[in-house]
Amino acid sequence: MENKGNSQKWKRVAMSFFGVIVTGFCIGAFQKANLGADPFTCFVTGIANLFHSTYSTFYIIVTGALLVGVFFVEKHYIGVATVINLFFTGMAADFMKGILDGFFPSPGMGARVVMMLFGIFGTCFAASVYFTADLGVSAYDAWSLIGANKYKLLPFRICRILSDSVCVLIGLVCHVTIGVGTVITALFMGPVVQWFNTNVSEPFLYGHKLEH
After folding, report:
1. What's the rounded Cα separation, in Å, for the pair 153 and 42?
2. pTM higher than 0.85, yes or no?
3. pLDDT tens sequence across 89-100
4. What value, to the nearest 5°, has the Cα angle with vertex 143 and ends 118 and 84?
5. What tens digit of pLDDT does each residue of 159-168 get?
6. N or C: fewer beta carbons within 10 Å in the chain?
7. What is the per-residue DSSP string for 82-127?
């Protein structure tokens, strides 16, 4: 029984690491496609553009600042995956964008659409793996949960819509492309993540589908 518990523990850690790295790759694909990105990426990219720096540098700075706040307000949401997310997502994004820049210096619309779709479905899959592992959440995710669950300000979906809207607005002001990828991610990410949860991530972790 103990071996089974240890096996599941390490499986959760591996899932967290895998989910975070794939998320970073997808962000890099989103950036190269230049057809819109997720709201938090819009925000971080915008701030990085403002200071003429890289996404990975400001991902660590912005996420670190949010994480400090989470630590003092509600430590429950901090775990192994939170730390992995802080240090590896930005690097994975820059790595993927660098590879795509090398192979596709001036991609046509068809290639950009493929990159965007990879970013959307890859992000959904990675998020499913990452959240199913249940070893902490990103600092950005944590603040919507804190607003909804700790302070009871508004339901989670409203807190998330508000935080996403602020991120998109800041990104727009800082000359980040807000496009079809941003809209598709906002509308379809939830249902697709749930499909991956039921059919892929939960069966992988538990060996069977869970009842929902």
Report:
1. 25
2. no
3. 888 999 999 999
4. 55
5. 878 888 888 8
6. N
7. HHHHHHHHHHHHHHHHHHHHHH-SS--HHHHHHHHHHHHHHHHHHH
